Amino acid sequence: MKKKYSACLIGTGRIGFTLGFDKKREQPASHTMACLNNPKIRITGGCDSNAEALAKWKKYVDRHISQITFSEDKKVKTFSEKQIDLMFASCNPDIVIIAVNEDSHLETALKVIEKKPRLVILEKPVALNLEEGKKIVKVAKKNKVPVLVNHERRFASDYAMAKEYITKIGDVQKINACLFSGMRLYDPKAEKNGGYSLLHDGTHLVDIVMYLLEALGDSELKKPVITGLFKDTKEKKVIRGFTANYSTKQVSDISIMMSGRSRYFGFEVDVIGTEGKICIGNGHAEFFKRQESNLYTGFYSLKEDKTVKLSKKTGYFANMIQNGVDFLDGKTPLRSTLETGMNALKVLEDIKAKIK
């Protein structure tokens, strides 16, 4: 076995740790579990402002930790400069994973990047807003620190197949992407903590649309036209629904629809071409192609393409961590970067400016 890469985790909450125990999710589903499952990663430390959460994390991974873990001052909610210094002085990690809440991304990322680890893995979205994101980009460039942004669907095998299959469905006529939840899409009161779905979940929807567009040579979504704007019946400044419409050089009709008044969680993307169709989302992926119709003589219809074989597991989290390892090994570039993360954040900012 070649040299292992040391990794430290900042933030031992849901995405950092506890989602790894969700029996309904495809595992690994947290940074901790994905690192423990990768033979090239050695966890050497971690910290969290929540002492109880850190204690539970330490108890679980203690047998894998060769050095010290760190706790934070219970009186503060962010990670202190002293703790970051101590972590680097004691562990000198190759990889630092930042799995804190959105409102702590900027402060934590700046402190970590200035220590110049070999790789930073930053939870999505890049930051609370574009202004904060640009500060992270500036410091990362200055210190020449690569940053992998965890837009997890970029690493999932089913979405990778969708991106490949786009070239087989003729000209793409329409992309329809939808997000359904009961969470407020936008609330001005949540600007400071990022507690609204447009940012928290919408970043995934926008990013995956842009990921699929890459296969067609499109890389930007600009000048949204907003339709279907729906405001909360009691709080008029709270947004519960909208559709952002776009047109690019390759696709004349793209719609990104988000609902914050649904009584279920749904995430789905349909790509409709002149010779086929892709329907993909949480828990499903179907691929259709033009074939001689069973319904009408002399016509063609779309039928499911049985030649497409998908694995039972998408590997979304495991593949993300592996991409970081392969990057450090010099085998491959990062598949989700600060650039792609900032592109998604720019689209979200454009939408927010139109709906608020």
Task: Give a structural overview.
It is a single chain. The longest helix is centred in the C-terminal third of the chain and has 18 residues, at 338-355. 30% of the residues lie in helices and 24% in strands. Strand 13 (284-292) and strand 14 (300-304) form a beta hairpin. 43% of the residues are buried. The model is unreliable at 71-79 (pLDDT under 50). The strands form 2 sheets. The protein has an 8-stranded mixed β-sheet. A 6-stranded parallel β-sheet has the order 3-2-1-4-5-6, sandwiched between helices. With 356 residues, the chain is an alpha/beta fold. The protein contains 10 helices and 14 strands. The termini are far apart.
Q: Helix segment count?
A: 10
Strand fraction equals 15-25%
Into which percent range does the helicity of residues fall?
Answer: 25-40%
> What's the gyration radius in Å?
21 Å
Shape: globular
Q: What's the order of the H and E elements?
A: EHEHEHEHEHEHEHHEEEEEEEHH
Q: What is the tally of beta strands? A: 14
What is the typical, i.e. mean, pLDDT? 93
